[in-house]
Design brief:
The chain is built from nine helices and no strands. With 172 residues, it is an all-alpha fold. It has two domains: 108 residues, no CATH class; 57 residues.
Length: 172
C-alpha cells in the first residue's frame, strides 16, 4: 500500500514537473515568453526555477529518494498558475526546491541501505537459517537472492527491497 502511494506520488510529481517542459503537453505552452507585466505570461524566473527543480527531482529519482514531500508541496502549484498567481506559484516552487535540496543532502549522507531494507534482510536471514536447519529446499530462494548483492553494491536499495520482499513471500 505504501509502495503504491509512493509510486503514484512520483508519477504525479514527474507529470506535473515535465508537463511544463514538453510543449505538446504544456497547457501553458501557448503563452508568449514573459515580457514585463504581460497578462497570462509565465515569468521567466518561474520557468527557470521549475527547470532547476525538475533537474534536481530527476537526480533524486535516480537515487531512489522518496519524493512525496516535494509532491505534497507541488500539488498547490498548478491551481496557482491557472489563476495566474505567479508570485505565489514561485513561492511554492521555492519551497519544493528547498525540500528537494534537503532530501538530496540527506541522501548524500546515507551510507547504507535504509532501515526498512535492513529489517527485511534480518528477517530474511532468520527465515533462511530456519529453512536450512529444517532441511528445506533452498534452490528457489537462492535463485531469487543471487541478484541481491549486485543491487546492494550499486546502492539500488528500492530494487533490492523489492527483491527481499519477493524472497520473504517465497519463504512465508
Amino acid at each position: 500500500m505504501t509502495r503504491d502511494l509512493l509510486l503514484i506520488t512520483r508519477v504525479v510529481l514527474v507529470v506535473l514537473l515535465t508537463g511544463f517542459f514538453i510543449p505538446s503537453q504544456n497547457p501553458f505552452g501557448h503563452y508568449p515568453p514573459y515580457q514585463g507585466n504581460a497578462q497570462g505570461a509565465m515569468p521567466q524566473s518561474l520557468q527557470e526555477k521549475m527547470q532547476r527543480l525538475r533537474v534536481l527531482v530527476e537526480r533524486l529519482q535516480q537515487q531512489d529518494v522518496d519524493l512525496q514531500p516535494v509532491g505534497d508541496v507541488m500539488q498547490d502549484f498548478e491551481p496557482l498558475v491557472q489563476q495566474q498567481k505567479f508570485r505565489e506559484a514561485e513561492a511554492v516552487v521555492d519551497r519544493a526546491f528547498k525540500i528537494a535540496q534537503d532530501l538530496a543532502s540527506s541522501a548524500a549522507r546515507q551510507t547504507g541501505p535504509p532501515p526498512s531494507l535492513q529489517k527485511k534482510m534480518r528477517s530474511l536471514q532468520a527465515l533462511i537459517e530456519k529453512r536450512q536447519q529444517a532441511g528445506g529446499d533452498m534452490k528457489t530462494i537462492g535463485d531469487v537472492m543471487q541478484g541481491l548483492q549486485p543491487l546492494m553494491d550499486q546502492q539500488k536499495f528500492s530494487e533490492a527491497e523489492a527483491l527481499a520482499d519477493r524472497a520473504l513471500s517465497l519463504l512465508s
